[in-house]
């Protein structure tokens, strides 16, 4: 009698995360069933607050385009980095967070051990081929006890993740459509970035990678 429940099946059981550090968890393909809803949400948000390539305080234009939704969103200009209640491009509040967004972030954070996570911002990054994000820490949030939840959609990319201090060569992790990461606890302040996104084509998004990052900013 063949054994239908092999070790392979157990290892690939849906929802079992790969632990990358004491507070860092990778849920491969977790968001794949929700991708349609998430992409509808990105479309709705960006119709109200369009994607834009912001300026860093140093005067360089970012290669990734961004928008956001929720009570606040992250902005950068010559004056610095901050969370703002108003979209500087429209002069209006950011669009509300679509329910599919907040539900996913809350559920996956709980699975990673962060029960009660209620994000007040979802930053949406859009990468065309060649766009990247340099190594940085996410530390503009008030309460660093809450994790960051990140959802990748569209073209694959290489996540660079380093240590808690600048320097050293970062580890590389390929992120694909539907992959979800939770970074909390001791891993919350790790340096991380995205290597230049290679060209490719994805049925869901065409020549684009999106990343949603959910945070508790205030
Ligand atoms: C948080 N975005 O928007 S998210 C960002 O794919 C950002 O667009 C990247 O970094 C992107 O700030 C990566 C995933 C991520 C990875 C490592 C982290 C978020 C993290 C380590 C600590 C805190
Ligand atoms: Fe970041």
TrEMBL record:
Entry keyword annotation includes Metal-binding: yes
Superkingdom in the source lineage: Bacteria
A Pfam family hit: 2OG-FeII_Oxy_2
GO molecular function: dioxygenase activity
Domain Fe2OG dioxygenase, chain residue ranges per copy: 118-218
InterPro entries noted in UniProt: Alkb, AlkB-like, AlkB-like_sf, Oxoglu/Fe-dep_dioxygenase_dom
SUPFAM superfamilies referenced in this protein's UniProt entry, alphabetically: Clavaminate synthase-like (SSF51197)
The protein's required cofactors: Fe(2+)
Protein name: Alpha-ketoglutarate-dependent dioxygenase AlkB
Source organism (scientific name): Marinobacter zhanjiangensis
Taxonomic path: Bacteria, Pseudomonadati, Pseudomonadota, Gammaproteobacteria, Pseudomonadales
Gene: alkB
